[in-house]
């Protein structure tokens, strides 16, 4: 039986502009998109990570998917989404700071999508609260083709492994299917 991606509504933020002199971008609006609207009828990669502005996520995972975006497109991927249990303001600020232009940011501030994916874990020992376990998935029209999950999917796991959900692992899979 196929595993379908959860159907949830994401609260995206669009149209905000930084005010003159700096500060928090303003002037935009919340735009609500369902996972079916985003993933339906497409072949996509979603990857999720413990949090915006964190070391592995900011140094390797998100920039790696951005760097390899066109290679993934050449392999039949329609879109790549970065999911994190952070709000839209944080996700947009993170993308701006890293110069992310191609990977789409999906804020899962309530953790609904992450929980339904079975990836919501507590990271309370480091002050994060509930966050996503690190993973990546390839979906075709909402059906999960492949899941790449790191070791230690449990509450307050002591380390933050990163290899299975890397862009390189996903790329290797796609080149061999």
Observed structural traits:
177 residues; globular; alpha/beta; Glutaredoxin; two-stranded antiparallel ribbon; 9 strands
Distance between the termini: 20 Å
Helix/strand/pairing category? alpha/beta
CATH class: Alpha Beta
N-to-C SSE series?
A: EEHEHHEHEHEEEEH
Poorly predicted regions are: none
| CATH architecture heading | 3-Layer(aba) Sandwich
Could you give the count of β-strands?
Answer: 9
Strand content: 25-35%
Radius of gyration, in Å, reads: 16 Å
Specify the number of helices: 6
What is the CATH H-level superfamily? Glutaredoxin
Query: How would you sum up the global shape?
Result: globular
Would you give the CATH topology?
Glutaredoxin
Strand order of the largest sheet: 5-4-3-8-9
Mean pLDDT metric: 96
Could you describe the largest sheet, including whether it forms a barrel?
Answer: 5 strands, mixed
Helix-residue proportion: 25-40%
Task: Describe the protein in words.
The protein has helices spanning 35-39, 55-67, 69-74, 88-98, 112-116, 167-175, and strands at 9-14, 29-34, 43-49, 79-84, 104-107, 120-122, 130-132, 135-140, 143-149. With 177 residues, the chain is an alpha/beta fold. It has a single domain, classed as Glutaredoxin (3-Layer(aba) Sandwich), CATH 3.40.30.10. The strands form 3 sheets. Strands 5-4-3-8-9 form a 5-stranded mixed β-sheet. Strand 6 (120-122) and strand 7 form a beta hairpin. The chain is globular. It starts with 8 loop residues before the first strand and ends with a helix. The mean pLDDT is 96.
In short:
This protein has 177 residues and is an alpha/beta fold. It is built from six helices and nine strands.
């Amino acid at each position: 039986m196929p595993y379908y991606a959860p159907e949830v509504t994401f609260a995206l933020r669009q149209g905000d502009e930084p005010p003159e002199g700096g500060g928090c971008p303003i002037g935009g609006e919340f735009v609500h998109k369902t996972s079916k609207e985003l993933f339906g009828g497409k072949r996509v990669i979603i990857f999720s990570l413990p949090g915006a502005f964190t070391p592995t996520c900011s140094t390797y995972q998100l920039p790696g998917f951005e760097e390899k975006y066109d290679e993934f497109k050449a392999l039949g991927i329609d879109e790549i989404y970065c999911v994190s249990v952070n709000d839209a303001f944080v996700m947009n600020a993170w993308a701006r700071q890293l110069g992310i232009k191609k990977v789409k940011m999906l804020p899962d501030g309530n953790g609904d999508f992450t929980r339904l994916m079975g990836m919501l874990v507590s990271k309370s020992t480091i002050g994060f609260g509930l966050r996503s376990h690190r993973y990546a998935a390839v979906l075709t029209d909402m059906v999960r083709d492949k899941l790449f999950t790191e070791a230690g999917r449990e509450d307050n796991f002591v380390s933050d492994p990163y290899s299975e959900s890397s862009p390189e692992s996903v790329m290797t899979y796609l080149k061999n299917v």
